[in-house]
Amino acid sequence: TGPVVLDILRNRLKVPEKNILNKDSLEDFGSLPADPNPASREDFLEFIIENKSDIGIVIGPDGSRCLIVGENGFVVSPSDTLAVIADQCKCIPFFQENPLKGIVCSICTSQASDKVAKYSSLLSFEAVPGWAYFAPAMLPALNHSIVFGEECTAVGASSCSYCGDKDAVWTLLAWLSILANAKKSVNEVLMEHWKKFGRNVLGRLDFENLPLASLESFMSFFKETYTIRLKKIKTGDFGNVAYRDQLHFDPSLRIEETHKGDEDLAFDIDNYVFPFGLVRKSLMRNDIFQTYQIQMAKGARVIIRRSESVCNSTTLRFYIEVCMDPEDDRLLADRK
C-alpha cells in the first residue's frame, strides 16, 4: 500500500512525507504485524500520544485493514467506523453520486450500524465471517451502494463504479471526508455519534490451538441448547443458484415466499441465510457448528465462533457485546 498512500496523501492531498511512516515496500513488511489492532500496535498509540497528533492511521500491508486513532491514542473500533460512515455518508463524494442503500457486516461486528440503519431506513444484514459469505452479497450489490464491515478493522463499499469489502485506503479517505465536513476531531465525531445512537462495546477472547474433535463436541452443545429464529425470506431457484431478491433488484422475477420462522433453527452454516444476492453451492464450506449467537436483554449478546487453523487445530472465539444508552454515565469511558 505504500506507493498508493504516497500518491494520494503526498501528491494529491499535500500531506508532508515525514508524516507517512513505513511507506517503502518490503518483502517481510518490515517485520510488523500484518493485522493492525490496538494490541499489536501499542507502539503507534504511544507515538500518537507523544507527538500530540490529531489523527493517526495504521494501514495493513495489503491495504485491506486499517486502525483509526484519534487524539491521546483514542482508538476507533471498526464497528464504530462502519456506523459513522453509514451515518455521515452524504458528505462523502462517493455516496453523493451513489446514495447508500444498505449495510452488510459480519455477525461478529457490533450492532452499532444496526442503529444507524434503523434511523436512516437502510437495509441491514449480517453475514458469516469470511470471503465466501461476503462475496455473494457483493455481486448483485454492484448497482446499489452498500457498505461492508467486520470486527477485524476492515470496512469497504460496493457500487457500480467500485467494489471492495475490505479497503483501508477507502476507509481512510471516508474518514477524512467526514472530518473535513464536520470540522471536528475524530474524538468529537465519535462522542457526538455515541450521544446520538448510544455506544456498543465489543470485546473478543481467543482460545487457540484447541483439538479439533474436542471443539466440535463443544460446539455441538450449542446447536442443541441455543437457537435463533430465521425471519421470513423470499427465494427463487434457478438451477444450482439460489436468488434472494430482498432488495428487489429484478421486479420481473417470480418469487415464492418461504416461511422459515415457525421453528427454532441453530445458527450454523447449514441454516445460514445469505443477506441477499447470488448464492452458489460451491461457496458453501463443509464446516459445521461454526458460529452461534446468544441474545440477551438490552441488546447484549455473546457470539461463539469456531475458526480453523492449518494444522488440524482450531481457535474458539468469544465475542461479548453490551449496549449503552446515550444517557449512560459510562458512555465516554476510556476504551480499556
UniProtKB/TrEMBL annotation:
One term of GO molecular function: phosphoglucomutase activity
This protein's UniProt keywords: Isomerase, Magnesium, Metal-binding
A GO biological-process term: carbohydrate metabolic process
Entry GO CC: cytosol
Pfam families, sorted: PGM_PMM_III (PF02880)
PANTHER family (UniProt xref): PHOSPHOGLUCOMUTASE, PHOSPHOHEXOMUTASE FAMILY MEMBER
Protein name: Phosphoglucomutase-1
Species this chain originates from: Araneus ventricosus (Orbweaver spider)
Gene name linked to the record: Pgm1_2
